[in-house]
């Protein structure tokens, strides 16, 4: 079975982003970019399934600017077998990403697609569900555990009240939550090896998907800043403040 | 211009998340219908019929809808949506799972996690862990929206003549997935997303035993729900559904007490809308103090029991 792992290039999770003064967006000049952390978890899960002999090949795919090749290269350094980049400038919304991924699925015929549950830039939490819908496949989102068996895959999901387990027929789409695994670091030899692995760079336009955003971003703003608080000297002072000044007790 | 509000409920009653999502639904315009989908929903539907501004309640009952599986629930939403100008749901795990699936089937780009309605087609939503708020206008004919409930006050159930309740046809279950089981933490304390007070613990608690021994008595004194940082959940000190943050739950209680939590942006994303924030941390430089109204710098293992006692 082949596993397809979509990976997104995003602002590194350690970066404190800045909103541009004119409200036109987030300042991305000279900002460190990395693979979306949830996608690292997806790559790791796919590699573990290959190492367990359940999957035969792991293909990483990214949709984004030319530089998305670096993100795919990171997946290859972790151990993925080959990569695909669909080059597109500007914002490509989850719905359009899902349509492009559907086209890749048609070419690659994977048995499983593992995505991150959300991208930490747009925080949409949609792409996996949308891809699954367009394919007519079952979906197992927010996964914290996967068990592949003869009659499908059991996915344990992180839900509001605790955990839910569902069984999906294959092929299926799964989205990874934080506790699915701890992704490995790419070792130096593997980083060297990854340089020789193939990445197929193609224009996204060749798939005939309309990439025009459906959501027009009119404005980007900083969230309101909380007024500075106070350090208190004792528990007694805290209780007093909560009772009288804040009135929350 | 009718909005379909998808109700979060437990069969016997409507959840607080629904009352919060009703507030932006009312801001959208004229008329609201509520969908109560599940397996045995009569009591919840009766409650929905008394919600403010609601002119009709639709019930959809089937075993497959009982566990909120995405495939049958999305099929139901797709069948109903064309009659509405907007479909709006609280961003619970069930709807975060099913609504984007329905959106793709309707060829609509969902607007996730809205924090304000500016016009029937224009919304505010957080991106980058809440560090950039964007205003977006949707060009789709139907708006599919999930609501960040922490950003809205609940619109309470009214004493009014109930709206008519009507059963709708349920599309056949596509049968792609089956429910196997669930493990729900039995909660005899308030729900995290609706609690007036939240006490949260971080990595510094050191073990599940200490997490419970220190924070539960404090939470009991305050009538509080208990939350946790990702680090505390990853380490097994607290169950996954207690995680507060960018990728956990968003809360906006009157009082949030952060104990042994450093205040990473991913954590702040879930709690910085609280009315009053208290931080207890031994590191005076910890970023949590930048958002805290009241800070105690010191050892939590001394301060927390002292605080619990002082509240007794
Ligand atoms: C993709 C992604 C998503 C994430 N999503 C979330 C999320 O939703 N929610 C979330 O919380 N995190 C999230 N994180 C993780 C986040 O970046 C931080 O790693 C995490 O919040 C840290 O948890 P913590 O504050 O408990 O631990 P630490 O950062 O280790 O902080 C522990 C704190 O305890 C203090 N301390 C230690 N001992 C004592 C003592 N005896 N008395 C008092 N204070 C003490 C220390 O000074 C320190 O400030 C996410 C990360 C990523 C990459």
From TrEMBL, chain A:
Gene Ontology BP terms: carboxylic acid catabolic process
Mitochondrion in keyword set: no
A matching Pfam family: ETF
Coiled-coil parts of chain: none
CDD domains on file: ETF_beta (cd01714)
GO molecular function: electron transfer activity
Location of the Electron transfer flavoprotein alpha/beta-subunit N-terminal domain: 23-211
Keywords: Electron transport, Transport
Transport keyword on record: yes
Gene3D superfamilies: HUPs
Cofactor section: AMP
Record SUPFAM superfamilies: Adenine nucleotide alpha hydrolases-like (SSF52402)
Physiological role: The electron transfer flavoprotein serves as a specific electron acceptor for other dehydrogenases. It transfers the electrons to the main respiratory chain via ETF-ubiquinone oxidoreductase (ETF dehydrogenase).
Family recorded in the similarity comment: Belongs to the ETF beta-subunit/FixA family.
Assembly behavior: Heterodimer of an alpha and a beta subunit.
Protein name: Electron transfer flavoprotein subunit beta
Origin species: Pleomorphomonas diazotrophica
TrEMBL record, chain B:
Name the record gives this protein: Electron transfer flavoprotein subunit alpha
Family: Belongs to the ETF alpha-subunit/FixB family.
Known role: The electron transfer flavoprotein serves as a specific electron acceptor for other dehydrogenases. It transfers the electrons to the main respiratory chain via ETF-ubiquinone oxidoreductase (ETF dehydrogenase).
Cofactor(s) the protein needs: FAD
Residues at which FAD binds: 203, 229-230, 243-247, 260-267, 281
Domain Electron transfer flavoprotein alpha/beta-subunit N-terminal: 3-183
Source taxon at top rank: Bacteria
Alphabetically ordered keywords of this record: Electron transport, FAD, Flavoprotein, Transport
PROSITE patterns, sorted: ETF_ALPHA (PS00696)
Gene3D superfamilies: HUPs, TPP-binding domain
Organism: Pleomorphomonas diazotrophica
SMART domains, A to Z: ETF
One family name in Pfam for this protein: ETF
Co-factor binding details: Binds 1 FAD per dimer.
Single GO BP term: fatty acid beta-oxidation using acyl-CoA dehydrogenase
GO molecular function, one term: flavin adenine dinucleotide binding
